[in-house]
Amino acid sequence: MARILVKGPTPLRGKIKASGAKNACLPILAASILAKGRVLLKRVPNISDVHTMLGILQGMGVKAEWKGREELELDTSSVITTAPEELVRQMNASFDVAGPLLACYGEANISLPGGCRLGPRPVDLHLMGFKKLGASVTSEHGVVHARAKKLVGARITFPKVSVGATKNCLMASVLAEGTTVLENCAKEPEIVDLANFLVAMGAKVSGQGTSKLTVEGVSELHGVEYSVLPDRIEAGTFLIGAAMTGGEVTVEDCKPEDISALISVLREAGQQVDVGEDYVTVKAVRPIQPVEVATAPHPGFPTDMHPQMVAMLGLADGASLLNETIFSGRFMYAMELVRLGAQLRVSDRQVFIRGVQQYSGAPVDAPDLRAGAALILAGMAAEGETLISGIHFIDRGYQDLEERLRSLGADIVRLEKPVPARS
Ligand code: UD1
After folding, report:
1. Where does the pLDDT of residue 114 fall: very low under 50, low under 70, confident under 90, or very high at 90 and above?
2. Which of 71, 133, 219, 242 has the fewest CB neighbours in a 10 Å radius?
3. pLDDT of res. 329
4. Residue 23 Cβ < 6 Å to ligand 1
């Protein structure tokens, strides 16, 4: 198993361009199934989750060809409605293909998804929406079968805000007969990007970025060229890295309005943040001030920046608190940060953080994607060597991470050869 070796402390300094957003690109790839014609996607991040989604689509007959490092052409003219189980189970977002398959072919057979180990990841709300649109849904041996002769527009009110259910029901409804109203929707920028992509293909969607989406069904969608939204979580990870390593980083080609909750927290923590039209600069100001943060659906503080924020607050001048309101199991990173010297106590869904002056390098294991990013940030701030395993999680969501961190001054390498396991 490959590992990442970080030697610290090194301040991150310089400029970096944001990649395309993983969480926008994955549903957009799935939604390409809906197009009658060629889809050319730009700013596609070269990360393993994108390759997994491509594998799923190719397993269903989609033809995909890279036209450049971040440009991908898709031909979805011939598709089968059963998704390859082994790949589906690798990634929670693979369930995104269900809505487009149902819309386009009146049938979807897809096993219940896997994904990061953040706690239960049910899909009951997705299925509730499919049923409201007129589908029959059964599940046996871990595989969901959804069928409908013709989906018909409906009013779907989600009892809980869900990114996954909002995007799947949106994709399912674009070809349905009549009007669909989705209420209590997630408002994440990635859902806005998906809706914009569907509109660019000829769908009629209104209410993007609000909790109510209205869809007028159309009979078919056409091919399109589309550029994926910049990744706000990746941008936020670099900016938190600047603050906690005592550096100064500008993330270019990003959408500052998508990370306003993070910008507020960084300012409250005493950091200098300059915001332009399409860039954000964070300049570290020591000491980091302690803050209280609660994760929440957008526009609140994103759960996907929770571990990175805790890694930063672990170096604050005093006691901080982070309350996780979305995923009950997002705390496996805490013991790994403790190995680096962080003083953390997890109770129920809260992390109590007593700031320390310095982390010290140690072997650690990334338990999931964003936790892995937090450990890399902590390793760059730590004195000595931090050896990180479990990096296949990090590869799911960060494009060329070591190269880009090196360009900002980090001392970070990937060790491809096995190294002795920690005792
Ligand atoms: C997406 C993101 C993930 C992010 C999360 C919250 C992708 C690929 N993943 O995940 O990175 O952390 O949004 O911003 O975009 N729930 C149910 N029933 C359902 C669906 C969800 O109870 O049918 C619950 C979940 O268990 C969770 C909460 O709702 O507690 C939020 O989940 P959801 O917003 O759906 O997250 P994901 O789409 O899985």
Report:
1. low
2. 219
3. 87
4. yes
Q: What is the pLDDT of residue 423?
A: 39
Q: Which residue minimizes the CA distance to atom 21 of ligand 1?
A: 162
Task: Name the residue of 117, 326, 349, 370 to mutate for ligand 1: max ligand atoms within 8 A of Cβ.
Answer: 326
Is any ligand 1 atom within 6 A of the Cβ of residue 271? no
* pLDDT single digits (tens) 321-357: 999 999 988 999 999 999 999 999 999 999 999 999 9
Percent of the chain with pLDDT over 70: 97
Judged against a pLDDT cut of 90, whether residue 43 lies above it is answered with: yes
Residues 6+ apart with CB under 8 A from 47: 19, 22, 395, 396, 397, 398, 399
Of 107 and 84, the one with more pLDDT: 107
Confidence bin at 422 (pLDDT 50/70/90): very low
124 lines ligand 1 (CB under 6 A): yes
The residues annotated with a catalytic role in the active site are: 116
Q: What fold does the segment set 22-227 form as a domain? A: UDP-n-acetylglucosamine1-carboxyvinyl-transferase; Chain (3.65.10)
**Ligand 1 geometric centre to CA of 339 (Å):** 29
Query: First CA to last CA across the chain, in angstroms?
Result: 16
CATH class of 3-18+230-415: alpha beta
CATH 3.65.10.10 residue ranges of the chain are: 3-18+230-415, 22-227
What is the structure's pLDDT at 418? 57
Distance between CA atoms of residues 27 and 217, nearest Å: 19
339 ligand 1 Cβ < 6 A: no
Beta-sheet pairing, 204-206 with 212-216 = antiparallel
Query: pLDDT tens across 200-222, in order?
Result: 999 999 999 999 999 999 999 99
